[in-house]
Amino acid sequence: MDKSYNFSSSNLANSSGLHNSINSNNVNGVNNINNGSNNNNNNNNNNNNNNNNNNNNINNNNINNNNNNNNNNNNNNNNNNNNNNNNNNNNNNNNNNNNNNNNNNNNNNNNNTENVSSSNISTYQQVKKKEKYNNNNKNKPFFGEERHKDNATPDVQKTKIAKWRMRERMKTVSVALVLCLNIGVDPPDVIKTFPCARMECWFDPSTQPPQKALDYIGKTLQAQYEKWQSKARYKQSLDPTVEEVKKLCLSLRRNAKDERVLFHYNGHGVPKPTTNGEIWVFNRNFTQYIPLSIYELQTWMGTPSIYVFDCSAAGLIINWFNQFAEQRDKELERFSGNNQINNNNNNSNNNNTNTPNGNTNQQNNSNNNSSNNSNTNSPNMGSSNSVNNNQSSGSSSHQRDCILLAACSANEILPMNPDFPADMFTACLTTPIRIALRWFCSHSILTGITADMLDRIPGNLSSRRTPLGELNWIFTAVTDTIAWNVLPRHLFQKLFRQDLLVASLFRNYLLAERIMRSANCTPISCPRLPPTYQHAMWQAWDLAADLVISQLPTLLADPNAEFKSSPFFSEQLTAFEVWLEFGSEHKDPPAQLPIVLQVLLSQAHRLRALVLLGKFLDLGPWAVNLALCVGIFPYVLKLLQSPAGDLRHILVFIWAKILALDKSCQLDLVKENGHAYFISVLSSPQIPADQRTMSAFVLSTICNNCRPGQNACLIGNLLPICLSQLSDPDPMVRRWMILCMAKMWENFEEAKWAAIKENAHEKLCLLLTDVSPEVRASAVVALGELIGGAEGSEQRTTIELNLALTLAVITADCSPMVRKELVISLSRIVSSYESNFVQVAQEIAQEERLRAVLEAKRLEELRKSKKRPSVPKISDADHLNNNSDLYGNGSQSSVYGCLWKIILNLCTDPFDQVAQRAQSIVKRISSKFSMEELMSHNLINRTNFNFNLNGSINGGLNSSGGGGFLNNSNGNLGASMNGGNLNGSNNNLGGSGFGLNNSNSSIRNTFVNISRITNRDPRSPTKTKLGTQRSPILTSSTNNVGTILNGSQLNLNNNGNNNNNINNNNMNNNNNINNSSSGLGNQLANTFQSLSLSSGLGGNKTNKMSQSTSSMNTSGQSLQNDFLMVSDIMPFEEDELYSDYYEWSCNYFSKPMMQSTGEDFESFESIEKKWKRQRNEMIIQESKEAVQNIIQQPPKSFSQATIFAEPNGQPISHLQFHPFDNILVVSDGLENISVWNYDEGQRINAFNNCNMPGTRITSMKLVNDYDPSMIITAADDGVVRIWRGYESNDTLKMVSSWRAFPEFATTGNDPIGRLVLDWKGDSGLVLVSGETPDSPKIRIWDVERELGVQDILIGTDSVVTCMANEKRGPLFSAGFSDGLVKLFDQRIPGKYSCVSTLTEHKSYIVNVSMPASLGGKTVVSGSSTGEIKFWQHSYECSSNTILNNDAISTFSVHEYAPLIACGSQNQRIKIMNFTGEEVCTLRYHDGFLGQRIGPVSCVAFHPYNILMGAGATDSIVSIYTDNSKSKSNVDW
Q: Which residues are CB-neighbours of 307 under 8 A, at least 6 positions away?
């Protein structure tokens, strides 16, 4: 799967979209992103008004974007606000864009840097090509995909999403400007210097009369604030009295309601604040200074509020304000607590209307109300109803909702430097660039720069291409970066992202701290900020200011002079790129992240910034969290409006990363019409596959549980676009097209009908046999989502039932992930037609009850007559058939019956997650049975347990002719999947046996004795060190009821009395489901199984059944409760199972995609991997030397290196050496697997293979020579299992399991026969064959695609006994029970695959081998009579024959050395070379009195070293090595 990201740096200068017009002092730094055609707008606009409009529009727009409430009403309101604001923003013009040549030059300069940056980006295409190359390596590990790690189960511990959205939308709507200047009269407590700072708002009041000067200062201050918030309500109070201040505050609070109010206090003309918490104002005649209590000011202002105190000793105000706020909050808590108690008492008293207390309560309530209203002026309650209501709310808090900024601390006075304004603090807050440049020049060595020149810097704040605009842009980036790196995340969000005006003031406050600290003043804020005045980013600001100021004389002298832009942003991007190269989650976050977002506003730097941002987001969810917190969301949301094609690649990638973490952004995308952007990407076939994949993921997220998103995508014609790309060669595209459609019609009836009209269900059915397991699982999920909501529609009902039956093809799927989704989809059909399934299940239970009566009667007669159980009488069976017409109610009943048996079949699935979900469906349907059914069946079922305990069932039902309705192996009604997932042959792969699993994790309260149905011992298997593993239980082969699927399509037909005739191409006849002669009606009853009534788990369940039998005399009520109890161990109780496959699939986009996960060569894992690689190479090299020694000088004998015994005493059946570790895997003749360290003779682990009791492990191989090594086993229960982490129980896990021949079910007492397995490690193929009821075959499974790829007909009635394959070649050989040896070519399909046949053997073939030492194409075969033959490819006769005088029971050939080992039941092992010369014969164990070895049951050579393992029937394992050299493998 090749992905590509083509981020061409040559497009940087020619990017056709996004010329930005923005005021850089806004909250998020985002404003209108207009097309380049708007650059030539009229330059004669009023600068102040233009800036104000811009700022206000930005505020509304960004606040709405950042505060997306879940409430629908709020969303609608915000949407309206956005529309209005966008209209206002579109009217803004960009000014002073007259330096085009200069800007172009700058762009070209920047492009040089960006070319270097882009060339260093590791593209997704390069990574994927590298991965593809690695995948083609001969040592490629199998079963290492993500689905094999957790079977498509998402991690429960999800990544925590940072609270980047502000819950409360906040806006400063009112501003009170209170100026106490009293121009011409200095306050008595401050002695001013001469000369002294006199300017207020950059105006010298002494130049005009006091009143005019005061008015001018008030208007100027208001104009300065309006640059930051133009639409706020401003009111001035110049030299006010207490009453005027009170009236002003109450009026603003009344109008603001719950929004924020700003109170700006300038106390330069009054005394310093008092130590009692008071500030000063005037009386009406200006003859006295009147104190104003901070407590009263709090009362009038209410919350939320922000205060700016510009006066000497302002720190006193902060201290008293906090004390009063704490006191007020405590009073409010006490008041609200009393009110709650009173309300509770009133409610309790009012409820008792018959008592006289009701009148008293009413009187008390009225008294309380009157007292509250009369005390509105009290400090506790405020002085107005509005304030009272505001403070009575439980959510308000003066300490939490009030923000304070003070010019200096409690013991300081304001600076009096005449070179700066007297209101230096206010100047920093409202005119930061002007005061910053003046302060910088006073500390710089620059000469020839006057204050007048600084005031005449060309440009305006909103145009970033002008000197003044660029300075403002850099200042915004610097202060944002300082705040981001210094403040806690929650405080940064509150102060810099919640409110436009607050963010501007705090950004400028950082400058105020730097400037005023140089004048020995310490500004104070509440909440308090860490010191920032010495941050390193201030040096970057000084450099940028120095560069602009140094050009100022030239620019002022010649307006056409070229302005050299600052390299600030290019350098910061370079620094960010360096961090990306070495940074990680465990290191400090990048300091330049806020600057990267600011750079997105520049057309020249945008592509480079987006690419770097994408690389940062690709580091993981933690990086996405950081980006969202810093404010990425409104930037990338606005960029979706850009028509620039060069941004499409990275924008789609960024949005995929964002939505992979936080899916709550879907409504924002719908409101901004963002879904149309991704639909347009999806609809273009020339766009690379990876971009379409990510676009489909984004659109699926928009539709996920979001009806507006579903509706918008449906209107946008997303459905036909997705359907048109279902045949795309990229499996990821197919997968996400399917999931996108599934999310679009999930619980959305309009989309379902649209899908049916487009025949989407038919197209999806074709993908049920796709080569990709993920695509197949996605198709099952989508079809499952399409089911439901068909009430009252016959067409939809027919389609849904057809779909459910079509899904039966998945029962034969190799992937447990796909089968799990099948169960979940079937649960939806069960939920939709629950009553029909309840009826079918009840009828099956009724038939089983009648069957149990007949069987109990027969067994009782046998017990009395003490005769051997025999086949039931035909009359009894016929009677049962006549009373069990389960499907006489029409074709639909037969469909429900087939579906029910598919579900019962899945209950015995060998993989836990599949079986448990199917069992939950059966349990839920079982709980719907009527009480009469429960009671009547309870008695019969317990009677059956009595017979089981008496032992009369065992043996009678275990015989091969144990009843046509119990163990009829001819009932082969499989699902023929012609054109399905097996290529080149007609394969009868259908639903296998149906029944409930009798394991530790299964259901207790169903209705039929499972031991009788499955003909098996009811005891649980013994599990060694694996108590949590399930032991799967399959039903008898009579239950092979499947659905005949021709071309993945089914038709529901009703032809007279023949209900649901199914055309079986393999059988060439029509099988009526109701036809009792076929035994199907009786066989269906066998499928509904149950467990014992015991509530215990594990152990010997016979004892627990005896306890249940001893309780037969309990009351009827307890009998009912026995069946109504809920199983404590079943985790799925909901009416419909929920699929988490989509969530798991989304995790793909949370992982690194753009760059390869570079290996840390210093990590422990990397060092260990390197060490293992060197060790493996050394072992291979030493083995080559040992083989050469043997060829040159054959060994004289083999000595015993290690001996150990299996503790269970069972015969040893299989041995497998690990190629490089000192590990030997041993299997006994049953179900136990042990892992031994043969160097130390110590067993390091033992576990149970979980094959059903009565079956045994018939084959065992090791998968993946290199890490991670796994064990693949085959047992004669028909199941192939793969185990990972077998070295320890802590890491042991079943990776996958499937039925090798799902069309044939088996039981413990009726196995398939010897299931032979061979593993072809170079191509990932599993070859299996076994003794099946029909003609034997060899089936090839592809473990990468998890599909059966070929059925090879062997052309003989004898069964396969052994197989071997050519290493890295298409040939494989098979030995048969009649002595034939055949050579097959897997490239040739079907019955023509056999290319040679050797007929010289006349007895059972013990083993075959195709050793690499003979070229890989020569077959070495050994028969039970002792004949060993060498057979070269393309020859019909053997090239060499070795005659052995002894019959052999096991036989093995070394892969590289010319050695053959033959084991015999006569207790000896003969080792010889390829010429037949005997090397040695082993009869005794080494030692002084070495005992005779036991009958040899298996021998095996090490893949490389000259080591041989031998197992005997006495459970002893011996390791032998040649004496010519010490052990080849080094003890590492």
A: 262, 263, 265, 301, 317, 321, 402, 403, 404, 405
- Inter-residue contact 1422 to 1440 (CB < 8 Å): no
Q: Mapping DSSP to helix (H, G, I), strand (E, B) and coil, where does residue 594 land? A: helix
Distance in angstroms (rounded) separating the CA atoms of residues 1313 and 1382:
20
Of 278, 285, 282, which is closest to residue 270 (Cα–Cα)?
282
DSSP type of residue 891: H
Residue 727 pairs with which residues in a beta bridge? none
- How far apart are the C-alpha atoms of 365 and 368, rounded to whole Å? 5
Q: What is the pTM of this model?
A: 0.75
Cis status, amide bond into 527, omega within 30 of 0 = yes
Q: What is the spatial distance between Cα 659 and Cα 624, in angstroms, rounded to a whole number?
A: 10
Q: Mean pLDDT for each 10-residue chunk of the chain (1532 residues)?
A: 38 35 37 38 38 36 36 37 38 37 37 36 38 44 84 74 75 95 88 87 92 95 94 94 95 92 95 94 91 94 94 94 88 70 50 37 37 35 37 52 93 92 95 94 87 89 89 95 93 90 95 94 94 94 93 88 91 94 88 92 90 93 92 91 88 94 90 93 90 96 94 95 94 96 95 94 94 95 91 87 90 93 94 90 82 85 66 44 40 74 89 93 86 52 39 32 32 34 35 32 30 30 30 32 34 35 35 34 34 31 34 35 37 69 92 68 76 87 86 83 89 93 91 92 92 89 88 92 92 93 68 84 91 84 92 88 91 92 88 88 92 89 92 84 88 92 92 89 81 92 92 92 54 34
Q: Could you write out the DSSP letters of every residue in 1196-1235?
A: S-EEEEEEEE-TT-PPEEEEEE-SSSSEEEEEESSSEEEE
Q: Tell whether omega for the bond before 708 is within 30 degrees of 0, i.e. cis.
A: no
Q: How far apart are CA 1468 and CA 1476, in angstroms?
A: 17
* C-alpha dist (Å) from residue 1 to 125, 612, 639, 729: 9, 24, 29, 9
Q: In b/e form, how buried is each residue of 629-663, taking b as 16+ CB within 10 angstroms?
A: bbbbbbbbbbbbbbebebbbbbbbbbbbbbbbbbb
Compute the distance between CA of residue 1068 and CA of residue 560 in angstroms, rounded to an integer: 93
Q: What is the largest CA-CA distance in the chain?
A: 134
Please state the φ and ψ torsions of residue 1376, each to the nearest 5 degrees: -125, 165
Q: How far apart are CA 179 and CA 155, in angstroms?
A: 60
| Beta-carbon contacts of residue 644 (< 8 Å; ≥ 6 apart) | 15, 16, 17, 18
C-alpha triplet 325, 532, 613: angle, nearest 5°? 110
How many whole angstroms separate alpha carbon 240 and alpha carbon 267?
A: 11
Question: Tokens in use for 618?
Answer: 């690709």
What's the token pair of residue 651? 């924008």
**Burial status of residue 758 (CB atoms within 10 A of its CB: 0-12, 13-18, 19 or more):** middle
Alpha carbons 408 and 309: distance in angstroms, whole number: 9
